Amino acid sequence: MTTSDDTGFSTRQVHAGSATAPATPRATPIYLTAGFTFSDLDESAAHFGTGAGFGYSRTGNPTVHAVEERLASLEGGDQAVLVSSGQAAVTVALLALAGAGDHIVVSEHIYEGTRGLLLDNLARLGIDTTFVDVSDHDAVRSAITPRTKALFAETLSNARNDVLDVAAIAAIGAERGGIPLVVDSTFTTPYLLRPLEHGAAIVVHSASKFLAGQGAVLGGVIVDDGRFDAAASGHLFPHLVQTDRLGGASFAEKHGRRARGAYIRESVAPRFGPSPSPLNAFLIGQGIETLSLRVERQSQNALAVATWLEQRPEVERVDYVGLPSHPHHDLGERYLRRGSGSVFTVTLRGGLEAARHVVQSVRLITHMTHLGDVRSLVLHPQSTSHAARSVAERERAGVFPGTIRLSIGIEDIDDILADLDQALVGVPVAERETVVL
Ligand SMILES: *Cc1c(COP(=O)(O)O)cnc(C)c1O
């Protein structure tokens, strides 16, 4: 569009200066645009027909796509779909597999938002859930029914820091006709663990946490392994193998082993619509560039903090899988060779009042609900993330009145320890806490 002086003011306010000279930026540019121009009719027709190129940012955007490619590569997956939050990633992944009348087997130790999604929102759509302790493999096996369309668990549980035996659970799904294992890998990131390499079918993350790292934006990602086997598990997923409801060939016919990933990308994510902002995608992409450095440092710091806390007289227990005292330490050594992450809980002998004292006394460490940040953070799970659970459920999850959750950052270790040291001043060194509310 030329914007010569003889066009009107209103025309020029939207068109003047819009033609930019081609340039080759080093950083991924932020394509903050709702859509993309077509050069001719054939190009627009091709886009609508086959999805070639970029048309509208809800279905594809170059900034978003760059981050998707990077995450697919880091996870060892086939394709990734970036969405607006971790909750959106879990929702999209599960809605790509299950519908009304279907069933999902889920770890009892999962993020509270996911638990609510399953118990309330997906239940209202007719998708049922059975919660099991996924470290009990027989319990997983016996929870599976002919309607089960997915197994779902987190790589490291909050709060007990249990390690998911990805290969064993994936194998149970495979035995039962190719039920895919969906893994929320937020706590471990692809730097520590790549579940697809151990047989999981789909990995999801809250990119708001370690992937972005700076704690500035929300995001989520779904990574599919590209190993959909229509012959083995097509009977479970008629929406992938039968004629497209909108007409035409099935996803399996069009995309082969990529059918499930294509369905996530072309059907579920753009229609339910949790599209990420290209600006947020850019910030997540920037964060990922330092992921290995941060997670390595955070894991080292967390191990040092956990080791230090375990020796303290105020402390009843530390649930950090990096410690030899943790019941899953050996499993952790097998799956988490580069470190054990930086999120764990510590239970103080002095109960609720001791926990209150610490979260209110820290100075360097921030009291907030978030994790995976470059800053160290603390939260009291009993009164926040786990407040809706029964006492028995909380105890099974390792949440007691004196439990605090730490997410250790990249600060200098001496400064983190000094802050905890001063926050523990005045905390009772009482004998074992009896569990009362
Ligand atoms: C934070 C979190 C989520 C939800 O992610 P949001 O980005 O906050 O929507 C899901 N799973 C786990 C394990 C999380 O920590």
TrEMBL record:
- Asked whether the keyword Transferase is assigned, the reply is yes
Q: Where is this region: Disordered?
A: 1-22
**One term of GO molecular function:** methionine gamma-lyase activity
Enzyme nomenclature, EC number? 4.4.1.2
Q: Enzyme class, one word?
A: lyase
Cofactor(s) the protein needs: pyridoxal 5'-phosphate
One GO process term, biological-process aspect: L-homocysteine biosynthetic process
Q: Which domain of life is it from?
A: Bacteria
Alphabetical UniProt keywords: Pyridoxal phosphate, Transferase
* A Gene Ontology cellular-component term: cytoplasm
Alphabetized CDD domains for the sequence: CGS_like (cd00614)
Give any Pfam family that matches.
Answer: Cys_Met_Meta_PP
Q: Which family does it belong to?
A: Belongs to the trans-sulfuration enzymes family.
Name the record gives this protein: homocysteine desulfhydrase
Source organism of this protein record: Microbacterium testaceum (Aureobacterium testaceum)
